[in-house]
TrEMBL record:
One of its GO terms (cellular component) is plasma membrane. It is a multi-pass membrane protein. Belongs to the glycosyltransferase 4 family. MraY subfamily. The keyword Transmembrane applies. Pfam families: Glycos_transf_4, MraY_sig1. This is Phospho-N-acetylmuramoyl-pentapeptide-transferase. It is found in: Membrane. One of its GO terms (molecular function) is phospho-N-acetylmuramoyl-pentapeptide-transferase activity. NCBIfam families: mraY. The chain crosses the membrane at residues 150-172, 184-206, 227-248, 254-276, 288-307, 327-346, 358-377, 383-402, 414-442, 486-508. One of its GO terms (biological process) is cell wall organization. Coiled coil: none annotated. Keywords: Membrane, Transferase, Transmembrane, Transmembrane helix. It comes from Platanthera zijinensis.
């Protein structure tokens, strides 16, 4: 049974298997039209519907996701004769459908029509069917069950808060720097709270403006349900992370200022791409080669800016910091190419990872925390910037968790990638960045390997062969049968370990 209207919800009448009968081989359609609601019904017999012959229990399943209404449905089937049937149904729903409401329409069962009256039928043969106790218990369990997205968010936030509390407590012993109380936790929690609140204001706006995600046709078929989800979420959580970091550093930190400019530049490239995608109603906005050129240009500009400003000590400028005994490695002009490559790789890495609900945001949160620990001894202000951006990612996950209410789009993914690359470029912490962003690197490598394999095998053998079922690699795991929340939760766990390793490497390097 399919219902459309402001009050009625999507219902399904599921019929259990019954004994074979020549009169029950197929199911013609029937329609009841009344007022401003329309109910489409699938009849349960191909021949005239003699319901008085059967004592058939029907289970009512509410299939509308997220509907909190408690639905009790009592059905009375009345058989007038061998060619027509009258239906008496009473719907009681908590959002305003009154019991016993009189509704009239027609039911088609082949060549004959029958009047449908939802109240006052007094025919002789009546079979009353109701939802049994087992169905009611199943309905209660389904409504009280906590969704996987909420559990993942709770686990992520708990682990991040505990880690930041522990590091705030022991940071003075690790890096020998006297810091303010809750030096990391304060910007993290402020950004998370503001981003979560801003999302509730922002999502209805972009939804009303019809700024929705365009699902690529070659993607997994299960993603078709995500069509129509609002996008460009980076417009509300990336600026919040920037503003909180600027305020916590008193607006006078050159490393934070440069990182903010790089973040905004990358977010601007992503915004142009998102706008073009919405205008063209296609998943591809800017051509790929133009995006690569713009990202590399931002990286080159940032490296030139680093060389012209005094934001670090002389022995660290244009150098890569490595653990002892390797020490800082001076690169000179090669530092320009490394910075441009880092910006391009991180931007595309986060962008490619943003394919599952909550995946890119959670991995990025842990990557920012790992980088904050790594750069603390070199630039404490940049550590605050990283903690603030991590909190913004967590606030965004309140709305992007499974199942997502909004996607970050290229605006958010490129902005996050630019912020991570800027933190590494300002401090020379490229090795910790590579470690804590290893999942982003794997996503990029999976695409490169897939494209290379297809092109080479097609040229050599005439038939393209794929290494993965689909790239990026998180789609490969989807097609292997892993559920989306399982993939995301596993990525969170791996990211946590990588962030701890990256932080340790950074502390040893500094």
């Amino acid at each position: 049974m399919y219902c459309t209207g402001t009050n009625l919800r999507l219902l399904t009448f599921r019929q259990p298997p019954r004994s074979s009968s020549p009169s029950a081989s197929s199911s013609p359609a029937a329609t009841i039209a009344f007022s401003k609601y329309t109910i489409s019904i699938k009849s349960f017999a191909s021949q005239p519907l003699p319901l008085s012959r059967y004592n058939i229990p029907f289970n009512v399943i509410e299939s509308c996701r997220g509907n909190p209404a408690t639905l009790l449905c009592f059905k009375t089937f009345v058989a007038k004769n061998e060619s027509a049937a009258a239906l008496s149904t009473v719907l009681e729903e908590s959002d305003g459908i009154s019991a016993g409401k009189r509704i009239c329409g027609s039911v088609g069962d082949g060549d004959s029509n029958a009047l449908v009256n939802l109240k006052g039928l007094r025919e002789k043969s009546v079979t009353s069917i109701y939802a049994g106790p087992q169905h009611i218990l199943n309905n209660i369990r389904r409504r009280t069950r906590i969704s996987g997205g909420v559990l993942m968010n709770a686990g992520l936030i708990t682990s991040l808060v505990l880690f930041l509390l522990a590091f705030d407590w022991f940071s003075w012993r690790i890096v020998k720097i006297q810091l303010e109380t809750f030096y990391f936790l304060r910007p993290f929690l402020i950004s998370a709270a503001l981003s979560a609140f801003a999302g509730w204001l922002y999502i209805p706006i972009v939804d009303n403006m019809k700024i929705h995600q365009i699902i690529r046709e070659e993607g997994p078929k299960t993603h078709s349900s995500k069509r129509g989800t609002p996008t460009m979420g980076g417009l509300f959580f990336v600026p919040i992370g920037i503003v909180v970091a600027s305020h916590m550093t008193n607006y006078n930190s050159l490393p934070v200022f440069g990182s903010i400019l790089a973040t905004l530049a990358f977010a601007g490239v992503g915004l142009i791409d998102d706008l073009l995608s919405c205008i063209k109603s296609h998943n591809y906005g800017l051509p790929g080669w133009i995006k690569l050129i713009l990202q590399a240009a931002v990286g080159l500009w940032f490296s030139f800016w680093l060389g012209s400003t005094n934001i670090s000590t002389a022995n660290m400028k244009l150098s890569v910091l490595l653990p002892q005994p390797f020490g800082p490695v001076y690169l000179g002009s090669s530092f320009l190419a490394l910075t441009a490559f880092c910006f391009t790789a991180m931007g595309n890495g986060v962008n490619l990872t943003d394919g599952l609900d909550g995946l890119a945001g959670g991995i990025a949160a842990w990557a920012f925390i790992g980088m904050s620990v790594a750069v603390l001894a070199v630039s404490p202000d940049l550590a605050v910037f990283g903690a603030s951006m991590a909190g913004a990612c967590v606030g965004f996950l309140f709305h992007n968790r499974y199942k997502a209410s909004i996607f970050m789009g290229d605006t958010g993914s490129l902005g996050l990638g630019g912020a991570l690359a800027a933190m590494a470029s300002c401090t020379g912490m490229f090795l910790p960045l590579f470690i804590c962003s290893l999942l982003f690197v794997m996503e990029v490598l999976s695409v490169i390997v897939q494209v290379f394999s297809v092109q080479v095998t097609k040229r050599l053998y005439g038939v393209s062969q794929r290494v993965f079922r689909m790239a990026p690699i998180h789609h490969h795991f989807e097609l292997c049968g892993f559920k989306e929340p399982v993939i995301v939760a596993s990525a969170y766990f791996i990211s946590c370990i990588l962030a701890l390793i990256a932080g340790c490497i950074g502390v040893l390097s500094a």
